[in-house]
TrEMBL record:
This is Tryptophan--tRNA ligase. Catalyzes the attachment of tryptophan to tRNA(Trp). It catalyses: tRNA(Trp) + L-tryptophan + ATP = L-tryptophyl-tRNA(Trp) + AMP + diphosphate + H(+). Pfam families: tRNA-synt_1b. Belongs to the class-I aminoacyl-tRNA synthetase family. Its EC number is 6.1.1.2. Keywords: Aminoacyl-tRNA synthetase, ATP-binding, Cytoplasm, Ligase, Nucleotide-binding, Protein biosynthesis. L-tryptophan binds at residue 135. It is found in: Cytoplasm. ATP binds at residues 9-11, 18-19, 147-149, 186, 195-199. GO terms for molecular function: tryptophan-tRNA ligase activity. Homodimer.
Length: 332
């Protein structure tokens, strides 16, 4: 079976609808026909300052949310990045193959370091995409399900894989990004031409999966809509309404065209009211399952321990190949 791999950072108390619709839903769908590796990217999280206690809590919550949304630990290796030391080890080798200018071109570094200035950003934030390349290449996956904002990191990953294969010997598979166009960039509810983002959006702009359901409903009902009154998908002219239609279609499985027909002659208020209900129905059981999983710490620990064992089997083999090929000696 073809392999899939993806990761998510534990940098908020809850995943949001951008994470879920842009990426996590595809993780769940792909696990049926693929061999999946899914992880919580705690090494990536510390590229910006984290409170240790909060990071630990969020890492567990992230794992609980993955299980609550349907990631099946019998099919998927679910693990925490720092439990598999090969990620950091391969990252070093790849850093030595990455050009300084090549790393500098990564737009997320530019965005994230823009606030405090480059001088305030850590070197870890600068080399972040190379660690991500290591995350991926260790497992030789065919597909990497992510949102649009990760496309550039996938391109770097493919470049580094090709470079290593060419310089040494064919070692890595060139992975394909798996990005679903319809949900690749979920917009901020208050600023729909920007992506919904835990670091950049205002609280009113993000629907968190673990918000109280009535809070999520209110956010949907307060979403910014556009001039005019017709419920129609038009990303350029009606970014607010189009974003709501995207979310609606994704959660219900109804094609956007059907929704447009259903709301012909109705206003934005009806659309938002109905979507708010759809969202409540969706998040309520998810939230209950997550909170229940959080209560059973020993179960979570066991899932993550088993996931790390499965991940290390694959990762250590790849790293062994890499170490041989670059000319490292083995301890006698
Ligand atoms: P992260 O933690 O920021 O986001 C997790 C996933 O959610 C997607 N996403 C979105 N998709 C659509 N619309 C949005 N508004 C939206 N916001 C977030 C992201 O594209 C991502 O797929 N660098 C990664 C984590 C990572 C990783 C990896 C991913 C580390 N190593 C290896 C894949 C493979 C990140 O920061 O995602």
């Amino acid at each position: 079976r073809p392999r899939v791999l993806s990761g998510i950072q534990p940098t908020a108390d809850s995943f949001h609808f951008g994470n879920y619709l842009g990426a996590l839903r595809q993780w769940v769908a792909l696990q049926e026909e693929h061999e999946p590796f899914f992880f919580v990217a705690d090494l990536h999280a510390i590229t910006v300052e984290q409170d240790p206690k909060v990071l630990r809590e969020r890492t567990l919550r992230a794992a609980a949310q993955l299980l609550a949304m349907g990631v099946d630990p019998d099919r998927a290796a679910v693990f925490v990045q720092s439990h598999v030391p090969e990620h950091a080890q391969l990252s070093w080798v790849l850093q030595c193959l990455t050009g300084f200018g090549e790393a500098r071109r990564m737009t997320q570094f530019k965005d994230k370091s823009a606030k405090g200035g480059e001088g305030a950003a850590s070197v870890g934030l600068f080399t972040y995409p190379v660690l991500q390349a290591a995350d991926i290449l260790l497992y030789r996956p065919h597909f990497v399900p992510v949102g649009e904002d990760q496309r550039q990191h996938l391109e770097l990953t493919r470049d580094l894989a090709g470079r290593f294969n060419h310089r040494y010997k064919k070692t890595f598979r060139l992975p394909e990004p798996y990005i679903l166009e319809a949900t690749a960039k979920i917009g901020d509810l208050q600023d729909p031409t920007s992506k919904m983002s835990k670091s950049a959006s205002s609280p009113a702009g993000i629907v968190e999966m673990l918000d109280e359901p009535r809070v999520s409903a209110k956010k949907i009902r307060s979403a910014v809509t556009d001039s005019g009154s017709e419920v129609r998908f038009d990303a350029a002219e009606k970014p607010g309404v189009s974003n709501l239609l995207t979310i609606y279609a994704a959660l219900t499985g109804a094609p956007v065209a059907d929704l447009e027909e259903q709301y012909a002659g109705h206003g934005y208020g009806d659309l938002k009211r109905d979507l708010a209900e759809v969202v409540v129905e969706f998040v309520t059981p998810f939230r209950d399952r997550t909170l229940a999983l959080m209560e059973d710490r020993s179960h979570l620990d066991a899932v993550l321990a088993a996931g790390a064992v499965r991940a290390r089997e694959v990762a250590s083999r790849t790293l062994g190949d890499v170490y041989d090929r670059v000319g490292f000696t083995r301890p006698a």
